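Repro:
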Amino acid sequence: MSSIMTSRQAAELDLALERCGWTAKDVKDLSSGDKLEKVLLFVRKLAKIKIIKPIINCSAQPFIPGGWSIHPEDQLPNRITTKDFEFNPKNFSLYLSDKQKQGAIGGNQLKEELKNQKVLTANVLDYLLEHPELIPEEWKGKAIFFWGTIYRNSDGFLSVRYLFWDGDGWRWLCRWLDNDWLDYNPAVCVGV
């Protein structure tokens, strides 16, 4: 049986996939089932591709770890609580206070500074954990905080969840507001 591609065509395809951001996992997923048949229909102009925008319900209750709670009085006023929030990293920025850039800032003090920022809720963090392919590559090496949801544990201590890359995948942890935030602990905000 002869190959349908020359080695040169295979190399061109490999370079094109890399240029467009494909990963080995993406290629493996595409190769499973009948997905390539559907792609072929598109290539032959017998089908159209509909882009699905990642929409997140930021007005819903986010994941709440056992024994924790969310209280309205703890929340920042400008958090994004839109029902149909479209995730688009081009519209986000990673906010660092001047004190973080110079060393560290306490969490409670940073919370005060963030009152004027449009911060993302933990709904976005939870969505990204389900869709890690959407997480910007430049977020690796940082702890990305979602200040739009502030949790309270059973002892009354406040914390914020964050997203981080552990070398094998994306995970979440939290930091108590009584701790310091450093220059690799940005808050993800809309705009700025």
